Amino acid sequence: MHKYNFYTTQELKPKGWLLNQLRLQANSLSGNLDKVWNDVKNSACIGGDAEGWERVPYWLDGFIPLAYLLNDEDLISRAQKYVKAIVNNQEEDGWICPCSKENRKNYDAWAVLLISKVLTVYAECSLDKDIPKVIFDLLSNLYTLLKNGEIKLFDWGKYRWFEGLIAIEFTLKHYNEEWLYDLAKLLKEEGIDYKGVTNLWERPLNKWTLDTHIVNICMALKGEALYSSLFGNANTSEVDYLLSVLQKYNSTPVGIFTGDECLSGLSPIQGTELCAVVEQMYSYELLYKITGQARWAEMLELVSFNALPATISDDMWAHQYVQMSNQIACKKFPGKPIFRTNGDESHLFGLEPNYGCCTANFNQGWPKLALSAFAYNENEVISVTPLPTKLTTNDFNIEVITEYPFKKSINYKISAKKPFAFSVRIPSFIKSLTVDGMAYKATNENISFNIEKGEREIAISFEVEPEIISRPYGLNCVKYGSLIFALPIEYEKVMLEYERKGVERKFPYCDYEYLPLSDFNYALFSKKLTVEEGKVDALPFSSQNPPIVIKCEAVKIDWGYEDGYDSVCAKIPNDLTPISNIEEKQLYPYGCAKLRITEIPFAKKQLYHLKQSNIKGG
Q1: What would the pLDDT profile of 368-422 be if each residue is shown by its tens digit?
Q2: Per the CB 3.0–4.6 Å rule, which of 33, 57, 360, 396 could disulfide with 118?
Q3: 3-state helix/strand/coil string of 207-249
């Protein structure tokens, strides 16, 4: 059993900067993909002749909650059109994917698992009473085929077996039949055991494997907890172990793991695939829902407020396939890419750099984060992630007025028709806390309130201190609350309009190179960090007008380029001796700094005065 449930799109609506972000998404690539991209527009999933496997369900996985969160009639009607077309193509025995009966044994069942999950999203958003039976028939067919050996899990389906558990859990609420548990057991039996392959995660290779594929792994983080919760005892020992290996051998400052597109080690010049970012977010959302443990919500914030916006353009018409911690240019490699298993355009911002999976899948990030703002069980309502939202139920309304994570206050306006227990999760990085103007000492992860019938306001403010966190190779990163900060590099965008393999890129859904206009070769000179808050405007993660900056003292060093490249900085700087005077530099939130140095060294301070006499103007 899950400890909590999340509220639905009928009850929860975005406000403030989150509403701006979702509207931006709806008005850009995510909200127009069915108009401009053939793999969605003419997908075999809806009777066309284009890709009919994962891209339409990937897209719907985010487009559906986006449409209903915004209560946008046009978006909703388009979502309904796609779902109805998929459902209308369901065969009598329950099979739902565009594949002939003769070819089912050769059809990777990952698409079946994915569509089953997406249909649960649609059912919860639309309240369409016919969808539970569609999912029931789909799962019944899958169970029969697996039990009789007519199909087997292989390739992606074998590595993503646990995705089917989401639809199984949903269906159990409508049809409490024993075979659904047997299906879960069958999926697990045919699926991969990730604990058995973690030895491959310790030494990344320039080799593509399903065992080290970053998206598989980020999805798998929730697998054991999903499975064990079906049988009444949620267990997180597997995810704890998987994370310990990942963090030791493949970590980044923003909570994601390197994978371009397979695990890539600790180097700040390796990349992380965007699909992995949103799937890691979804895993953390479900892990919180299942366990109620605050750590999953805090880890979710770190990924959501940093890695997600960093790899999507300001206008959200373009995205990267992979992002890098130290990313000083995004231009096509003339020769061998720096990435272990990705192509030479993977870090460009565009329509479908490298592969189109991220084009379809990235848009689940913001809508599903919005839906994780509040959780509840029969005893408690909890503010999980303090996003600007309004929650409306038959018994109460709660409006969250905040500019968190950019600002340090959260105000709740509550109107209750009857008493209820309300809790607010308090992040571990908060140094001091004030509730309704009074100092408050948090003794656990939540603050609890007994809300009485009537009106109530709760004002929470807190203090956070910027901190410097050590990273591998003698580098460091700057953290302030849930935000990681990076040295931004000014850039110009070079627009690339072209057609390749029948896929047209034209403004605004074209590709871009981001070419640097400022220097990257800086080191921190001191630990002095000064936070300056600004205005949170219509683009909360703007690369031009960040809502918050941190000022620091820095000097130029001989950093150098990675051997064989002129657009990739060296993994480890050549020399930490200062070669300039001390400068005051601004660090931007990682999500705002599209070109950046995130993992940064300290200069050799003791040599500064010796070198000053050799510095022009020193």
Answers
A1: 999 999 999 999 999 999 999 999 999 999 999 999 999 999 999 999 999 999 9
A2: 57
A3: CCCCCCEHHHHHHHCCHHHHHHHHCCCCCCHHHHHHHHHHHHH
